[in-house]
Write a structure and sequence with these properties.
With 488 residues, this protein is an alpha/beta fold. Helices cover 44% and strands 12% of the residues. The protein is built from 22 helices and 13 strands. It has helices at 6-10, 20-23, 26-30, 55-63, 86-94, 110-122, 133-146, 165-173, 186-196, 213-216, 221-228, 249-259, 277-286, 302-307, 323-330, 361-373, 375-388, 394-414, 423-430, 435-446, 451-461, 475-483, and strands spanning 42-48, 72-78, 98-101, 127-131, 150-155, 180-183, 203-205, 236-240, 267-271, 293-297, 311-314, 335-337, 354-355. The chain has a seven-stranded parallel β-sheet with strand order 3-2-1-4-5-6-7, with helices on both faces. The chain has a six-stranded parallel β-sheet with strand order 10-9-8-11-12-13, with helices on both faces. Strand 4, helix 7 and strand 5 (150-155) form a beta-alpha-beta unit.
Length: 488
Amino acid sequence: MAQLPPAMLLKKTPQSPVSMSDVGWHFILASNRLKPMIDTPIKTVFLLDSLKRGGVQSGVLIQIPRLNPSRYDVRVWVLRKGESDEEFLREFQEAGISVEFIPAQHYRDRNGILSLAQRLADERVILLNTHSFYPNIVGRLAGAIAGVPATIVNYHHTYSHQWEPKLVAFERMLRRETDAFVCVSQTVREALQPLLRLPQDRIRVLLNGLDLDPYETSADRSALRGELGLPLDRPLIASVGRLTAIKDLDTLIRALQHLLQTQPRVLILIIGDGQERPRLEQMARDLGVGESVRFLGARGDVPQLLQASDCMVLTSLMEGFGRVIVEAFAACAPVITTPAGGVTELVQHERNGLLIPFQSPEEVAWAVERTLTQTAETRRRVEQARRDVRQYDLETWVRKTESIFEETLDRAHSRPLGRPPSPLLQRLRYGKLRFDFQMNRLLYRMGGRLTRPVLRSTRELAKTPGGVDDGAFPQAEQSHHHRSGLQR
């Protein structure tokens, strides 16, 4: 290929003998001759599914302002816009983070994917950092079409309820378009590596970090409750997270029927919003415990609410990491949780929290009662948790993230001419075949060689609640594990 001026490599022009789809941005990084011409800071895009308040969005909000601004020019692109996004959008803007909505509703949304690819090309994005299920798929497709040189995907969950065989096959196809696979816990890595056949040398485990500054002030609990409009004379039990089925808040509400027999003044604060809220509110009324549950919706003052609470309860069926556990540790709120996925890497039973079985209202009530009455043991666990939380320091998390970015860019530099685009992606770029037909054709050609093992893998992952291996927490041993040497 004839040598081209950098401007002709960076943008398609009428005079250019080669279009960007033929060369791509990867040529810029791959050629040692052109390395000095790469503009710094490096244009980086964090691709999110939505701006609904959640662990992923909260982590991105505190991480981006702390990345080295002389090295990374970071902006956030969002695939879906909701009515409840405005408040969180303002927080991003106040932090100086550029946010842009680029609708791409689904991995079959051909026009949306091509629009995203065009924006990536127009902005000359060098590093694409995708977060969560659909952004991981949609982002890599668009990035491959645009020729983005370096791509990182972040798995915040095992997504066990979403892995259809077609999607697993699609993920496996997109491995070649990915420079690094970042998992938020060892549990997520162990679940996804065999299912998606991720290359071991490109997988990294990066535990989330937390800004500890809002938790450093040791305010009086009564004063905090007064400021937040919470009752001063009632035990407060906090639950934080999106109101979705996998959080299993049914178990927590049902536990109230048992707990009110010994703690008639207890009040549960459900902090978060989601599609399950109307059903959960109706359920509380039907069970006659509506007066003991308060739905607070999505809040920006979670640190203060946790500090004002007597304990925090998590009844999830699956957690990729369990960010709220770290928040409770920092807020000195005693932790009661199920052994859901990555939570077991944070909480050790009796050491810094209490582990309870899945879907067991009686055990939830027992653990809360014990936390409220056995104050010396509770204080010991809280003090240990407060010491443990230091390992999730925000600055350490940011520096490790930058290290993964640099490693990814180095890998992109070392490719002779970048990765060749797959035939599927080449046809997508030129619009020669419809997108859905392309994917079905790909899977048909793979046939039993890929789809049958994929189907087996997804069924195995879905056998247990949230993809949790029952053998890791045997039911027969739970009673002894939780209560050995203890009195109710």
